[in-house]
Specification:
Structural class: mainly alpha
Strand content: under 5%
Number of strands: 0
Helix content: over 70%
CATH architecture: Up-down Bundle
Oligomer: single chain
Largest sheet: none
Number of domains: 1
Number of helices: 21
Order of helices and strands: HHHHHHHHHHHHHHHHHHHHH
Amino acid sequence: MALKDVWQAPVWQLVSRPWLSFHAWLRRPWKRLPLLSYLAILGPGLIAANAGNDAGGIATYAAVGASLGYELLWMIILITVSLIIVQEMCARMGAVTGKGLSELIREQFGPRWTVFAMLLLLVANGITTMSEFAGIAASLEIFGITRYLSVPAAALLLWWLVTRGSYEKVERLFLVMTLAFFAYPISAVLAHPDWGAVARHALIPSFRLDRDYIFMFIATVGTTITPYMQIFVQSSVVDKGITVREYHYERVDVIVGSIFGDLISFFIIVCTAATLYTRHVTIETAADAAQALIPVAGPYAAILFGIGLLGASMLAAGVLPVATAFSITEAFGWEKGLSFNPSEAPIFYYLFTSLITIGALITLIPGVPLIQLLLIVQVVNALLLVPLLVFIVKLASDPEVMGRYRNGQLFNALAWATVVSIGALSILYVAVGILAPLLGIPL
C-alpha cells in the first residue's frame, strides 16, 4: 500500500500497520484462542503509551533524575494509574462508537466547543512538533552538526518523504533507532543505584513547594499523558475495527502498554539519578544526558543516545503534523489526506506544512536552549491537557454516547480525580512558578 493510500484512511494506520498485518494473518478459525486473539488486538494501547517516550519524554525523565534524584519515582507509579484510566476511556469510546475523539466532540458539543477543542489540539501538537525538531537538533549536535543545518534539512526531508509517499520506507528505520533507549534499564542496573532509596521514594510520596520541583513535576505529567496520545489511541482502535466484542483484549493492551511505557520512564529516572544526580551533573545539552548511558556503552554513550534521540524525533516529527492536520480537518468535515493534491485539500496541506515550518523555525531562534525547550513544551502540554480531559470524561460517562459501556461510578470518580489533580497542579504551577516571582515572594 502506498503512503498516499494510507493517509486516505485514518492517519494512525501508518504506525499500526505491522499490527494490522498481524491481525489479518490471525483471521483463521483458531483466532478464538485467547492468546492469539490478544495478539491480534495488540497495538493501539502499547504504541500510544510508548509515544510518551519521544524526544521530550526522554529529556524530561533524564532531567528529573539528574536534578531531583529518586524523589519523583512515586509520581511515576501514580501517573501510570491515571494514564491507564485516560487511555482506557478513549479506547473504549473508539470500540463502542466507532468514531474518533474529534468527531465525537463535534457531534456532542457542537461547533463552538469543537473549535475550542481543536485549537487546544493544534497548539499542543504544534509545540510538540517543535519539541521533536529540538530533539533532532540536540541529537545531531552530539555529532558536531549545527542546528542551522540539521533542522532545515530534516524539515525538508520529512516534508518530501511524507508528501511523496516515501516515509513508510524509512519510518521502520527510525523506529529501530529508538531501541537505543532500551539501554536505560541495563545502564540503571550497571550503575548500582541505592535500591533501598529507589523503593522508598517509589512507595512513599513526597512534595516540595519549590518552583523547580513543581516545574519538573508538571513536566512529567505533560510528557506522560499528552493530548496527542488520547487522539491516537481512540482513532487507532477505530481504524483497526475493534468492537465491544473484542474490547476486553484491547483493555489488556491499554494496561500492559501503559505499564510498559512507564516502566521505561521509571528506569530512565533511576539511571540518571544513579549516574548524574550523584555527580551533580546538570543537563543542559544532549551530551550531558548521554552520560547516563556510560555504564552500558562506555565512550560510545553519546553516540548511542544521539542515535536513539534522532530516531525518536524523526519518527514523531514525520507522523505528528499529518496526524494533527488529519484530526482537525476530520472534525470539520474538510477534505483530508495525502491522497488528495493541495488544491483538493488546501486546509489539510496548509496545516501540515505550517506545523513543520513553524516547529523548525522556532528551533532555529538563536540562543534557544534545546533541552530546556523540550522541558517547557511538556509543561505547556500539561496545562493544555486539562480541558481535553474534561471532554473525554464527559463523553465516556454519557449514556447517550456509551450506553451500558459508560463509566461506572467508581471509575468516573477516579477519572474526575485525575482531571482535578492535574488542574490543581496546573494552578499551583502558575501560582508558584509565575505569580510568586512577579509578586516578589521568595520560593
